[in-house]
Specification:
By secondary structure, this protein is α+β, with helices and mostly antiparallel strands. It contains 12 helices and 9 strands. The strands form 3 sheets. It has a 5-stranded antiparallel beta sheet with strand order 1-2-3-5-4, sandwiched between helices. It has a two-stranded antiparallel ribbon with strand order 6-9. β4 and β5 form a beta hairpin. The chain is globular and about 65 Å long.
């Protein structure tokens, strides 16, 4: 496999030289394979091999081109072989937001504001101007929010924590969760990244760039903001979250985005939703896909979910279940 991919690369990039080093990269819970191709003279590319299991993989390049044309910083696409499921794209390096997680806040603050500046560009796009051939993923609807909730119930509470089916069954139709899904679905939509967390933001040439954006779809900006501020991979303190929340809302107002009086309330509901989704994903990937490394993130995400549930104050049955869990 590697020899044939190197040969294809050499044919596409005749100036690459005779020696091409190929390094596999482990990237998240994706079904795609990533490789870094290092060539003489300092040239480096990322090669992506994707399968047909997920429809969104086929549309990655078109979405990248759309985002680039709309001033959202993403990797440049050099070549796409759709028949073989291969993408050669710009290598932005490995300086992601996650890699700065142990630095003090004074050092990280600027990186986070650059990151929020970038997502604000995406959130400001007019959905009516999105071309029909972009093939975005299904928009966030009440049904999708309910699916995320059930994903959490099935794979976090069920598969991972082995909570009894009767309790899970009651939570599946728990009125406050149904109401949360309904209210989130009623909010005005914009374009959202869908997995806006520290490992999907890379700093290159002094600015933030978004990666893993194939899940872009119509949704609410609160969801992306909650994804970053309650990122299970990086622990932010309450004061840091508050500072970033206020930065985002002020910048959104300055950019002419709609920021309602209920923005923070909707943000808290979106955090509830996103954390349930993340915990469901960790349970699924850790147990069903045998990616046990994802299970290590459950304690942080669970602590954040408990915090959000306590803040909302109207989910006592869920709060009681969460308190019984031993992460």
């Amino acid at each position: 496999m590697s020899a044939s991919l190197i040969a294809r690369t050499r044919a596409l990039f005749p100036d690459s030289g005779a020696e091409i080093e190929m390094e596999p990269l482990l990237k998240g819970g994706s079904d795609r394979a990533f490789y870094r191709l290092r060539m003489p003279h300092g040239l480096s590319l990322i090669l992506v091999k994707y399968g047909a299991q997920r429809e969104e993989n086929r549309h990655y390049v078109r979405i990248a081109q759309f985002l680039h044309a709309n001033e959202v910083r993403v990797p440049n696409i050099h070549h796409h072989d759709e028949a073989e499921g291969l993408i050669w794209m710009e290598d932005l390096g490995g300086d992601d937001l996650y890699s700065h997680r142990d630095e003090d806040w004074e050092q990280r603050r600027g990186l986070y504001t650059l990151t929020l500046d970038q997502i604000l560009i995406l959130h400001g796009k007019d959905l009516s101007l999105v071309p029909d051939d972009l093939h975005l993923e299904n928009e966030f609807t009440e049904e999708m929010y309910r699916w995320e909730q059930n994903y959490f119930l099935d794979h976090c509470l069920g598969t991972h924590f082995q909570v009894d089916p009767g309790t899970i069954g009651k939570l599946r139709f728990y009125a406050p969760l149904l109401a949360a899904a309904r209210r989130l679905a009623r909010q005005p939509r914009t374009l959202v990244h869908r997995d806006f967390q520290s490992q999907n933001v890379i700093f290159f040439e002094g600015d933030a760039h978004l990666i893993d954006f194939q899940g872009v779809r119509p949704g609410i900006p609160h969801y992306d903001l909650a994804s970053l501020l309650f990122d299970p991979y990086v622990c932010l303190g309450q004061e840091e979250r508050r500072e970033l929340f206020e930065y985002y809302t002020a910048a959104a107002i300055d950019a002419g985005h709609r920021v309602s009086n209920a923005f923070e309330e909707i943000f808290t509901l979106a955090a509830l939703q996103r954390l349930m989704q993340a915990l469901g994903a960790y349970g699924f990937l850790g147990h069903i896909r045998q990616r046990e490394d994802f299970l290590a993130h459950i304690p942080v995400a669970l602590a954040s979910l408990r915090e959000i549930v306590a803040k909302l104050g109207n989910l006592p049955e869920l709060a009681a279940v969460l308190e019984e869990l031993e992460a």
